[in-house]
Design goal:
By secondary structure, this protein is mostly helical. It is built from seven helices and no strands. It has one domain.
């Protein structure tokens, strides 16, 4: 009787599996870089959406195993380094926000998009409020909350577009459809 050899994936199959596994993290990095594109000159607004927050929320709900806390922390640190702000601010905000989203994940999986979007609105409000509190503590005074409010409002407004892009990317690349 012939002994069957265990399945050994080809190098291309292994590379494809690795690429699929890191895809949400790479999307998070791209969202960080997208944050520094001067869209304000194009659309006439100085506010840019919190692109990394959109990616973190989406992948925390849809595929948390592919966007672990360490990846969220790395996205936040990269954003902090590129923004020139307080190092650790957005890394902290993103990891805490991610932790809370993960606890609510089961309520948001397979819900109508309006509920998914409402969940993101609450998430963005929490992340903005947390960032505002941390910055106020760092500076030892209450900083004006208006810019953070508008920053998160713009983020919530454009989230459906990015959720659609993330969803298509998930369907075509990660699920092979």
């Amino acid at each position: 009787m012939a002994k069957l050899e265990p399945y050994a994936p080809t190098p291309a199959a292994r590379a494809g599996r690795i690429a699929k596994t890191v895809t949400p993290f790479v999307i998070g990095i791209v969202c960080v870089l997208l944050s520094f594109v001067p869209f304000g000159r194009i659309v006439g607004s100085p506010l840019a959406p919190a692109f990394p927050l959109m990616a973190i929320y989406y992948w925390a709900i849809v595929r948390p195993e592919m966007f672990p806390p360490l990846a969220v922390f790395a996205v936040g640190v990269l954003f902090d380094l590129l923004s020139g702000g307080e190092i650790g601010l957005w890394a902290f905000v993103y990891v805490v926000t991610y932790s809370i989203v993960i606890t609510q994940r089961l309520m948001l999986v397979n819900v109508p998009f309006s509920a998914f979007w409402a969940g993101f609105a609450f998430t963005a409000a929490f992340a903005g409020a947390l960032a505002w509190v941390v910055v106020s503590v760092i500076h030892g005074m209450l900083v004006p909350p208006g810019p953070v409010f508008w920053h998160m409002a713009v983020t919530v407004a454009v989230f459906p577009l990015f959720a659609m892009v993330f969803g298509r990317f998930e369907t075509r690349v990660l699920l092979g459809g």
